[in-house]
Specification:
The chain starts with a helix and ends in a 5-residue tail after the last helix. It has two domains: about 80 residues, RNA polymerase sigma factor, region 2, helix turn helix motif (Rna Polymerase Sigma Factor, Chain: A, Orthogonal Bundle); about 90 residues, Arc Repressor Mutant, subunit A, CATH 1.10.10. With about 180 residues, the chain is mainly alpha-helical. Helix content is about 75%, strand content about 0%.
Length: about 180
């Protein structure tokens, strides 16, 4: 079923919206949660929370890309659950992935307050489109899908050190790009 038809089901408050969403995006959202949590039961709970959040947010939300919208919700639930489970523990590639972005991912609150989300999304998407395809994919696999450097290296048939260098250079490029755009001080 096409995304716009699924969104219309949400707007009609038809329970088939969740059935169709699960059929189309269940495996996708589960893999995002699983990459972060490494626990199938917790991952399934995050996906169920995602469906509830989608149900409660549409309407008024009308996501232009349903897959990305659902993926972001799932990712946020999984990260929150991971943080709650590991408050005192440090380590693991999920914590490392979040820490690697450091202050780039959380700019000055005053700047954040001045800038609306759509503008940030526009700038961030422009940055991603400016990257070579492989670098963009490596960056997204690490920071959106929370895959380990080892998993990424295996996926692209490159050495783990090469993945780490790509990520380091891309983080620096992102920082420079955000500075040029006046977003990161």
């Amino acid at each position: 079923m096409q995304d716009q038809l699924i969104i219309e089901l949400y707007y009609q408050r038809n329970e088939q919206a969740i059935v169709q969403t699960n059929a189309k995006y269940g495996a996708y959202c589960t893999s995002i949660a699983q990459n972060i949590l490494h626990n199938m039961q917790d991952s399934e709970e995050c996906v169920n929370d995602t469906w509830l959040c989608a149900w409660n947010s549409m309407p008024p939300a009308n996501p232009p890309i349903l897959r990305t919208y659902l993926g972001r919700i799932t990712r946020n639930f999984a990260i929150n659950r991971y943080k709650a489970q590991h408050r005192q523990k440090r380590g693991g590639h999920t914590v490392e992935a979040i820490a690697e972005l450091g202050d780039i991912a959380s700019p000055d609150t005053e700047v954040q307050a001045q800038m609306d989300k759509q503008e940030f999304a526009r700038v961030f998407n422009a940055f991603l489109y400016s990257l070579p395809e492989r670098d963009c994919n490596v960056f997204l696999r690490r920071y959106f899908y929370a895959e380990s450097a080892q998993e990424i290296a295996k996926r692209y048939g490159i050495k783990q050190d090469n993945v780490l260098k790509i990520l380091s250079r891309t983080r620096q490029k992102l920082k420079d790009y955000l500075k040029e755009e006046g977003i990161y001080l």
